[in-house]
Write a structure and sequence with these properties.
Elements: E1 7-10, E2 13-16, H1 21-32, H2 37-46, E3 90-91, E4 100-101, E5 114-126, E6 135-144, E7 147-148, E8 152-157, E9 161-167, H3 168-172, E10 176-185, E11 188-197, E12 201-213, E13 216-225, H4 228-244, H5 248-254, H6 257-264, E14 270-271, E15 286-292, E16 296-306, E17 312-322
Helix pairs in contact: 1-2, 4-5
């Protein structure tokens, strides 16, 4: 049968140009070629080879294989030292004792009355050499029969292995030396320490930095600290020098009226003023001798106080007798 005008023929079928029929045919054709709905029909039509009712095969995109990343094992970080390890640490020779391994944190009993101990309560755990593992920095105290020697600062890595030691006595160059306070930050230990003579005289205070460079311990930047003890001692020296020079104006400006009167009672011709060493505790004052009238050494005790402005001043002067 001849096609009806206004219609089309598909594989022997005659379809009238009825609204919706063309769309339906397109959808059916797409289904035959693996499409899915109207959108797929459009794609199928565009893929048709001229003169053919079958779509041309589409090229499948290819992708080069992605290389797997090469895994590099992390560098091995050694274990950190611990404070608990110090109980059996090795300590250097000092206090007339040889180098030895501690037992329970103490030197061997056969060296009594000499004895040495590690202060574990104040020990610092810090990575000094930058290898990722912490070292322990500890204070080592030793003495002979109750007389303390200058402290040592000992540095240990895991084991414990003694990495270095600092003898504060070699830097303070006085009979005693002790750490007052310290802290660690950025692989550096900052400390304030004191050196002095006898039972607490001629105090000197210092600041230093302990670190490691090239695997070796360094102790550097040691500087004196002007503290209130030294300030008080300087005041007494100035007062006594003014007395020798008969500079009463300076003397009166430095002390209270009562203190000046007490001192002036014992003479006007002064000479040979001695030192007045001030200890760690300013409230303990100091004691010195000065010669009156060229013949008698007199003992005076000086007391101190801190004013509201923060300065130190002489608060009292007390006569302590004849020095003989």
């Amino acid at each position: 049968m001849a096609p009806v005008p206004g219609s089309s023929s598909v594989r022997g079928l005659s379809l009238s140009a009825v609204p919706g029929v063309v769309v339906l045919v397109g959808w059916l054709l797409a289904g035959c070629t693996g499409g899915a709905g109207p959108a797929a029909a459009s794609t199928a039509t565009s893929a048709m080879t001229p003169g053919s009712s079958s779509p041309a095969p589409s090229a499948v995109p290819t992708q080069a294989p992605t290389a797997l990343p090469t895994l590099t094992p992390n560098a091995t970080v050694p274990p950190s030292a611990t404070v608990a390890e110090l109980a059996g640490a090795t300590v250097p020779a000092t206090c007339d004792m040889p180098a030895q391994q501690l037992a329970g944190g103490r030197t061997l009993a056969k060296y009594a009355p000499r004895e040495g101990t590690i202060d574990t309560k104040t020990a610092l755990v810090v990575d000094l050499d930058g290898d990722g593992a912490a070292e322990v920095v500890a204070r080592y105290d030793c003495g002979a029969g109750g007389v303390g020697w200058p402290q040592w600062l000992l540095i240990y890595s895991h084991g414990p292995v003694l990495r270095g030691a600092v003898d504060l006595g070699a830097y303070g160059k006085q009979e005693h030396a002790n750490v007052d306070r310290w802290s660690a930050s950025g692989g550096i230990v900052s400390l304030t320490w004191s050196s002095y003579e006898g039972a607490g005289f001629e105090f000197n205070h210092h600041t230093s930095r302990l670190a490691m460079a090239g695997g070796k311990v360094t102790f550097a930047d040691t500087k004196p600290v002007l503290n209130e003890s030294r300030e008080a001692e300087a005041l007494v020296k100035k007062f006594l020098n003014a007395a020798v020079a008969k500079d009463t104006r300076t003397m009166k400006s430095m002390v209270s009226g009562a203190a000046y009167t007490e001192f002036a009672r014992y003479g006007t011709n002064w000479s040979g003023p001695g030192r007045c060493p001030v200890g760690r505790d300013l409230s303990e004052g100091c004691e010195t001798v000065i010669v009156s009238d060229g013949s008698v050494g007199l003992i005076f005790r000086f007391g101190f106080e801190r004013t509201s402005t923060g300065t130190v001043r002489i608060s009292t002067i007390t006569f302590g007798g004849d020095a003989g």
